[in-house]
Design goal:
Low-confidence stretches: 1-11
CATH architecture of the domain at 24-122: 3-Layer(aba) Sandwich
Shape: elongated
Structural class: alpha/beta
Helix content: 10-25%
Number of strands: 7
CATH topology of the domain at 24-122: D-Maltodextrin-Binding Protein, domain 2
Largest sheet: 5 strands, mixed
CATH superfamily of the domain at 24-122: Periplasmic binding protein-like II
CATH class of the domain at 24-122: Alpha Beta
Length: 143
């Protein structure tokens, strides 16, 4: 079951509690010399014909949000490179190979060869939760 399925902080079965911590918006990373690099905000639809980078360190939820945003803009991203992580993906962008959509929190360091731009329109967001047990687990003593 996904976190979005919960209307409250408590999981339906009562075993886990999901506490929303923050929302982390996605950004577009472009080569510094990209045709859209001078804009403050980038419409996703203008990146429909670009080659995209995916990261193997963030499959599933993060990748699904990026794909959902592109689909909402009317296209499917053409992923042609998969990087191990976001810093490596920025390296690919920096040499002008591809474009990248990345959660803001994953941009701890930004390479000189790239620019980071907000997305014009509805920004995709990943929701960050702390997941805890609803009750303290019982301690079992070994003898």
């Amino acid at each position: 079951m996904t976190v979005e399925a919960f209307a409250s902080d408590a999981a339906p079965d009562g075993d886990l509690v999901y506490t929303h911590l923050l929302d982390d918006p996605f950004r577009i990373v472009l080569p510094r010399r990209h045709r859209l690099a001078t804009r403050r905000r980038t419409p996703l639809v203008e990146l429909a014909d670009e080659s995209w980078i995916a990261t193997s360190s963030c499959p599933g939820y993060c990748q699904a949000e990026a794909v959902r945003a592109c689909t909402g803009a009317g296209f499917s991203p053409q992923v042609t490179v998969e990087a191990d992580d976001y810093p490596a993906a920025q390296g690919y962008v920096g040499v002008g190979l591809r474009v990248l959509m990345v959660p803001l929190l994953a941009l701890g360091a930004i390479r000189e060869e790239v620019v980071v731009r907000r997305i014009r329109g509805v920004e995709p967001v990943r929701h960050i939760y702390a997941v805890t047990f609803s009750q303290r687990p019982r301690m079992v003593r070994c003898r």
